[in-house]
């Protein structure tokens, strides 16, 4: 028994005659009659008593009407769900994100998803760059919000979300004397708090090179693998943090922020949305 036969059966039930049903279905009446006959043969029962007045459903037909109607409705829902999932409007989306994404990129994406894809279920995982790269390779996440550059085995699609300059996160006591500005030389002398080299190697080496250009040595007092941990270390007067400028929107006790007077050689802090090929359409939400 074919799906088309079930649809033809319901059309005859609803319209009462083969001629009206064939007109509604936009098929020839003989073709509809043959389809119903094949369904009857497949089931081994008579479904309609045909007469000049129309096609009257038999007891056997009446017994299956509700089941056929329900089955066709469920199938329509399944077709709609499949198309919506393919288009990125339904299903499950697992997103990995660095802490930098929490303050702009993620809220913006969540609003867009709520508006355009309310049927999409989200799972969110805060993790570092290296963790996200492995999670994408293993299928643990579908989209990663991470810093560039990245090294992931296999094909990926990328979208640049932001390119932010670095700003100095300074202990409050030191900041009182700086009037909102500080030099790389002063930062190098005080000592830095940086993300670990293996976490963001491009940024790490870019900072080191910018400081060497100022004839200074890179002095790292502490490594911290999360932005909030960097701020906590700064508040504890362990050193000066180098963070993206959006961090100024965060109020953290014991920390002030200073522009870097001669920081033009510092690398930018880029945020990307990265997906595997299967989830490429999901990047439109970011």
From TrEMBL:
Residues 1-58 form the HTH lysR-type domain. Keywords: DNA-binding, Transcription, Transcription regulation. GO terms for molecular function: DNA binding; DNA-binding transcription factor activity. The keyword Zinc does not apply. One of its GO terms (cellular component) is protein-DNA complex. Belongs to the LysR transcriptional regulatory family. This is LysR family transcriptional regulator. It comes from Pollutimonas subterranea. The lineage of its organism: Bacteria, Pseudomonadati, Pseudomonadota, Betaproteobacteria, Burkholderiales.
